[in-house]
């Protein structure tokens, strides 16, 4: 289904890109505010979510999952390692591959961070069903647009 608009330049408030940008910025700021006292930045939190879900992920896997280039990810990983939350180790089968492993402090951090997600989700004012529907729609939007031929 193709959406056709009669007006060529809709108002800013009518733009999907702006609604997504504004919502993302607002939610990201809520996370930043709650994560700061725990010593985490929002991008570090995203990386840690990956490591908490699956210990031993490669840097390339985390890079793809969070949408950050490895050049941006490397200093972030270094800071997480210096903070004692994870370790970076070369893969024994392929030394070009670096794997991320959770430390005891990183596992403890997961317990400390758990209420952050709940607080942000509650702040949305959405019901559990609305929240799940919105998340599903956004994931579908991401997949569809990334696969679209925009040339």
Automatic annotation (TrEMBL):
Keywords: Cytoplasm, DNA-binding, Transcription, Transcription regulation
InterPro entries named among the record's database cross-references: HTH_MarR-typ (IPR000835), MarR/SlyA-like (IPR039422), Transc_reg_Sar_Rot_HTH (IPR055166), WH-like_DNA-bd_sf (IPR036388), WH_DNA-bd_sf (IPR036390)
SUPFAM superfamilies: Winged helix' DNA-binding domain
Key word Transcription regulation present: yes
Cellular compartment(s): Cytoplasm
One GO CC term, this protein: cytoplasm
GO biological process, one term: response to stress
Keyword Cytoplasm set for record: yes
GO molecular function: DNA-binding transcription factor activity
Residue span(s) of domain HTH marR-type: 13-143
Source organism, top-level taxon: Bacteria
SMART domains in alphabetical order: HTH_MARR
PROSITE patterns: HTH_MARR_2
Pfam family, any one: Staph_reg_Sar_Rot
PANTHER family for the chain: ORGANIC HYDROPEROXIDE RESISTANCE TRANSCRIPTIONAL REGULATOR, TRANSCRIPTIONAL REGULATOR, MARR FAMILY
Protein name: Transcriptional regulator
Species name: Virgisporangium aliadipatigenens
């Amino acid at each position: 289904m193709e959406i056709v608009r009669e007006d060529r330049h809709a108002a800013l408030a009518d733009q999907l890109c702006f609604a997504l940008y504004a919502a993302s910025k607002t939610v990201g700021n809520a996370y930043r505010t709650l994560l700061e006292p725990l010593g985490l930045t929002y991008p570090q939190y995203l990386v840690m979510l990956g490591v908490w879900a699956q210990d031993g992920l490669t840097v390339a896997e985390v890079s793809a999952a969070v949408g950050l280039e490895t050049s941006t990810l490397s200093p972030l990983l270094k800071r997480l390692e210096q903070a004692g939350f994870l370790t970076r180790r070369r893969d024994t089968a392929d030394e070009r591959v670096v794997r991320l492993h959770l430390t005891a402090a990183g596992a403890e951090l997961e317990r400390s961070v758990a209420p952050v997600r709940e607080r942000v989700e509650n702040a949305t004012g959405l019901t559990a069903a609305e929240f799940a529907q919105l998340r599903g729609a956004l994931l579908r939007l991401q997949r569809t647009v990334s696969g679209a031929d925009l040339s």
